[in-house]
Q: What sequence folds into this?
């Protein structure tokens, strides 16, 4: 009986136009819009890590060469250097293969074409070198044995303007919008939650009345409906995260399985919220749908989906609010996973979601129990 | 005497100041096709909802198959097939899936369920639409699907709440024939409608309801015998003298006459050869007349005479 109900609940959910529209098409569309909107910023940020640069040695300068080589090595190298002649360097600059040409001789000079972040970084690097050049020269003259240590230390200083990984992850400001997008899809699970009450309560639809005439206990019917909705929602959440991660190439970090887990639990939270709203009072299903959508959108707004800094503002003014806003809790899960190396904050957010799920489900069942169809 | 399948005793249901059911009692025996007839708002659907424990009620008792009905009386519910007034199917499921889903709420065995679903599909004539979604079906086909979902599990008691509303004549006939067949196969049927012709056609016993009360109950012949009118004659005639109409009015068994300038209507109560006598008076006065036809009383006449109002509006 349970599996029979579950099978059809799944079919009903996965074929429901509202679910397909709100939980599959809409997030894909909105995610794509975000990606297009933030696209140019992402390109800049992506190339921030290693700036292609040509070096033309007009005169031998071993100290500068050592410094350049030291900032062009390793995983977090600042420059991707090509030593070449001037003609080739100019051609590379013209073709966009390099962002600037460094002329190394008695003096170190720079030629760039654009005025972007990468050009500015190379310029800062050259300015810093020129400031420290005398110190390095003194070190070479006075204590040649320690010259390499000094160069290494100064090279580190020169690259200090780069992002410093205080945490394990990538604190991408724009990724927050995608976290909120996933949280929005999760909370829109309230649509499927509402559908459960609509089709199980005799006072809300003919289907509800019809089901209540059958020998299937209400508890069994609700359990199958909730399970079906959870699975359908999990499918939607998986599609959403997969699309953002692999199609839009928004990096969720190295803890992808936990991202999926958080998204699915968040989706279940959305379903139970809809189930709870649907179980309240004797309002029509249209009114309840309106309430669910309003609550969902408000939570999304206050979580920063529409206005990026509102969440921070709320954290400052009403510190507890982000801990009770379901959308903020869900999006914070992804943030915690990407930012913090430990799991304390992530675990707290997951537990918060679990508590919400239990409370919403319990209240929904209590409120649904014994409802009687009442109209003539 | 046959077993009582449905027993409603002194049922009262109130919505605030409105009494939806006013001390209603019914006793429906096994094998009957019992009609609940009444205008909209008379309490038919409320009676059905109370019967199915979808509604609480203020007073009274309801027993089905000799056991008290309650929301958790699953053994009783297993034996009931319900066809709601509003079509209750899932738009997301196909015709076959809908019938299978509802049948599965009653029948666990897969093989048996498949057989029942196939039979239900054939019964309502939806073989060509098995993979169609309900939204693609016409109103009549949708009603047939609704019925298939209600009867697929072969219930002993079938409750049909106005199943032919907004249905084309072809589908209506199919539905009515189907109900008669289900009854022949052993099911007890409760049929609510405000279409008196349907109730007259298929019901073995009828209760007429108005304002939450049962105002009459019996077979259609018993109900018709309850009223004064047994025959209504209509004679097309122009320039009928008053003295002739007066003579007709005092004929035996005639209790009323009406004349609108072109048609004489004569109401009789009992007796035989009434038409012969009326036509005899007209011939006696050498009056020519056109079309003559006689009507037997309908359930509407019964309702009209008991309540003073028509059972349903003419446009229905």
A:
């Amino acid at each position: 009986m349970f599996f029979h109900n579950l099978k059809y609940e799944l079919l009903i959910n996965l074929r429901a136009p509202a679910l397909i529209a709100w939980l599959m098409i809409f997030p894909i569309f909105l995610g794509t819009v975000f990606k297009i909107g933030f696209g140019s910023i992402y390109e800049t940020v992506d190339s921030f890590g290693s700036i292609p640069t040509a070096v033309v040695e007009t005169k031998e300068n071993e100290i500068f060469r050592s410094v350049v080589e030291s900032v062009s090595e390793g995983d977090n190298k600042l420059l991707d250097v090509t030593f070449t002649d001037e003609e080739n360097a100019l051609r590379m600059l013209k073709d966009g293969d390099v962002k600037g040409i460094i002329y190394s001789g008695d003096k170190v000079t720079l030629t760039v074409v654009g005025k972007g972040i990468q050009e500015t970084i190379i310029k800062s690097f050259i300015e810093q070198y020129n400031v420290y050049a005398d110190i390095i020269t003194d070190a070479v003259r006075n204590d040649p044995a320690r010259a390499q240590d000094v160069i290494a230390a100064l090279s580190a200083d020169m690259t200090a303007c780069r992002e410093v990984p205080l945490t394990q992850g990538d604190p991408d400001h724009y990724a927050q919008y995608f976290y909120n997008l996933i949280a929005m899809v999760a909370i829109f699970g309230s649509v499927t939650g509402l559908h459960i009450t609509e089709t199980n309560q005799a006072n809300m639809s003919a289907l509800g009345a019809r089901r209540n005439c059958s020998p299937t206990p209400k508890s069994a019917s609700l359990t199958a409906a909730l399970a079906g909705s959870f699975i359908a929602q999990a499918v939607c959440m998986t599609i959403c995260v997969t699309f953002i991660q692999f199609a839009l190439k928004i990096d969720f970090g190295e803890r992808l399985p936990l991202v999926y887990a958080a998204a699915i639990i968040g989706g279940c939270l959305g379903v139970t919220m809809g189930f709870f709203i649907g179980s309240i009072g004797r309002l029509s299903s249209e009114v309840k749908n309106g309430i669910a959508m309003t609550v969902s959108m408000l939570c999304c707004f206050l979580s920063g989906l529409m206005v990026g800094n509102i969440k921070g503002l709320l954290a400052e003014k009403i510190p507890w609010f982000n801990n009770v806003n379901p959308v903020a809790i869900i999006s914070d899960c992804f943030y915690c996973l990407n930012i913090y190396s430990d799991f304390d904050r992530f675990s707290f957010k997951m537990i918060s979601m679990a508590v919400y799920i239990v409370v919403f489900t319990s209240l929904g069942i209590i409120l649904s129990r014994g409802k009687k169809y009442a109209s003539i | 005497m046959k077993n009582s399948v449905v027993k409603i005793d002194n049922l009262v249901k109130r919505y605030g100041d409105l009494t939806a059911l006013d001390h209603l009692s019914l006793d429906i025996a096994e094998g009957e096709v019992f009609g609940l007839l009444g205008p909209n708002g008379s309490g038919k659907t409320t009676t059905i909802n109370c019967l199915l424990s979808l509604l609480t009620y203020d007073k009274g008792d309801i027993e089905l198959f000799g056991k008290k009905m309650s929301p958790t009386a699953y053994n009783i519910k297993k034996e009931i097939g319900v066809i709601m007034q509003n079509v209750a199917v899932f738009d997301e499921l196909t015709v076959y899936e809908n019938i299978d889903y509802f049948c599965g709420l009653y029948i666990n065995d897969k093989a048996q369920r498949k057989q029942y679903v196939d039979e239900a599909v054939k019964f309502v004539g939806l073989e060509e639409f098995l993979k169609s979604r309900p939204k693609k079906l016409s109103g009549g086909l949708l009603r047939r699907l609704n019925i298939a979902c209600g009867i697929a599990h072969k219930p002993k008691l079938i409750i049909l709440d106005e199943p032919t509303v907004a249905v084309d004549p072809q589908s209506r006939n199919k539905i009515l024939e189907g109900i008669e067949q289900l009854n022949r196969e052993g099911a007890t049927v409760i049929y609510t409608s405000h279409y008196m012709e349907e109730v007259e056609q298929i019901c073995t016993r009828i209760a007429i309801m108005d304002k939450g009360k049962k105002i009459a109950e019996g077979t259609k012949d018993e109900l018709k015998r309850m009223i004064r009118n047994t025959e209504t004659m209509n004679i097309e005639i122009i320039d009928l003298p008053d003295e002739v109409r007066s003579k007709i009015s005092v004929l035996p068994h005639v209790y009323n006459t009406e004349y609108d300038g072109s048609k004489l209507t004569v109401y009789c109560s009992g007796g035989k050869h009434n038409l012969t006598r009326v036509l005899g008076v007209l011939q006696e006065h050498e009056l020519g007349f056109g079309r003559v036809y006689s009507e037997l009383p309908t359930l509407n006449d019964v309702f009209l005479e008991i309540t003073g109002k028509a059972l349903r509006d003419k446009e229905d």
